[in-house]
Amino acid sequence: MLDINLIREKPEWVKAQTAKRNTTAPVDEILADDGRRREIILEVEELRRQRNESSKQIGAWMGSLKKLEADLKRAEAGQYVGQELAALQTQLNAMQFNVDEAKADTGRIGDRIAELDEELRQVEARLRDNMLWVPNIVQDSVPVGPDESANVFHPPQGAPKPVFDFEPKAHWDLGPALDIIDFERGVKLSGSRFYILKGMGARLQRAVIQFMLNYHLEHHGYTEIQPPYMVRSAIFEGAGQLPKFFDNIYRDAEEDFMWLGTAEIALTNLHRDEILAEEMLPLKYVSYTPCWRREKMSAGKDVRGIKRGHEFHKVEMYQFTHPDKSLAAHEEMKQHALDICDALGFHYRLVDLATGDVGFAMSKTYDIEVWAAGCGEWLEVSSISNATDFQARRANVRYKPADGGKTRFPHTLNASGLALPRVMIALIENNQQADGSVVVPEVLRPYMGGVDVIR
RNA sequence: GGAAGGGUGGCCGAAUGGUAAGGCGCUCGUUUGCUAAACGGGUUGGGUGAAACAACCCAUGCAGGUUCAAUUCCUGUCCCUUCCGCCA
């Protein structure tokens, strides 16, 4: 969610920024509702003030009234003469009248407040709803273009492109042949887009997970988090996944649980509704989780092999940073992901996503694609994004500046580090030998009990 | 799954319908050979407003309701604790 002040102060600029994403946002509606909202608040607060005052007065009168009643009772018991009794009765009547009048008046104020509150509720609901449709502002360094066709591809880097003196096979042939991927039994258990990793295949994936986690912990200074894999729907809202991606989320039919589509959802909300001390920043988390996605938007796409499943595994990096530090942190996280690619010996390329392709909540995104020699594709293994304060505002994560100023929103960044199925594809396809065996990269062997070749 | 109790500031904790005590911690000041102590002040978040300071409004887990007025009464809901049952 954007800062409403930005829209108030620079509506035309926000519209222009949104247009760069090849989309539109209801800026004018927001301005109108925001203005009306402030009018109502002004009036309703004045009315509340009046009601508070008047209620206080009634309270005081009620006290006097009780005292008068007590006096009257004693008088009736014969302790006062008739004249005094009458005077008391008059006083009491007057007081009662005052109270009744004030109650009626104040009641009318209450009715008016209720009316205005109702309108305020409507205006604010509409305002919030519209605000949710305004995407984050993209950074100036993001290449401008309507869609992914404008993405900027950098020259390949990393290890040289693997070359073979035989025809390299795709993982969907190599895997079953080595008996490390079993597509048929995966489908038997769970249907299409499911597979089984078996034997050295299972161990290889476990090795990669361990390796990546340890690398981020030991070399990049992250703290490991094992979050719940099923969370409440409010957590998805906080991460900006709802309502937009409702159809893509697996959820429990009876209880309010949803299964993570990425660890980012849990990590964004880790400090939900908290006020952090500035000294705590940056917070750097790394998390290994399964990820579940219905893949409704990609029905019929990438159905072959293990590239795109309903369930996959991923190591995810996440940072909460000081707003002034997020640009540097973004570059740093990109390097953290690249370090893994280098360690695993990948041939890869960096992609600067164009304004039309950068995710709704993000201000800038890099993709890393690794070359898979068998299927002959560049596979997206990581997406590295700076959400600036967009997600923090939505999840209500704030920090208190050390100088004691007003609370501010930190910036949040996320990066895959990396996505397992595509890493597995690249490892299997790029390291294959003529006999169909697969060489295990050096760095993974300690996690494989020393095994150097899967055959 | 059943039963009971509970959720109030950074922490503890009072307030049974009258407009959120008190203490601890933290912080500033005064006093003071130093420290300590004492005394005094300050000490949440959001909003409206605004040059700034005020001022005002909202917030007692959350959402509604009753009332002139709700921490207090009512309804729903979330969470925590204890006991019973079941269970890897």
Strand content: 15-25%
Order of helices and strands: HHHHEEHEHEHEEHEHEEEHEEEHEEHEE
How many helices? The count is: 12
Number of domains: 2
Instruction: Label the CATH architecture of the largest domain.
Output: 2-Layer Sandwich
**CATH homologous superfamily label of the largest domain:** Bira Bifunctional Protein, Domain 2
**Contiguous runs where pLDDT drops below 50 for at least 5 residues:** none
The level-1 CATH class of the largest domain? Alpha Beta
Explain this structure.
This protein is 45% helix and 17% strand. The chain is of the alpha+beta class and 455 residues long. It has two domains: 26-131, Helix Hairpins, CATH 1.10.287; 148-454, Bira Bifunctional Protein, Domain 2 (BirA Bifunctional Protein, domain 2). Strands 1, 2, 5, 9, 10, 11, 12, 13 and 15 form a nine-stranded mixed sheet that branches. α3 (27-79) runs antiparallel to α4 and α7 (200-220) packs across α12 (420-430). The radius of gyration is 32 Å and the shape is elongated. The two termini are 51 Å apart. It binds one RNA strand of 88 nucleotides through α3 and α4.
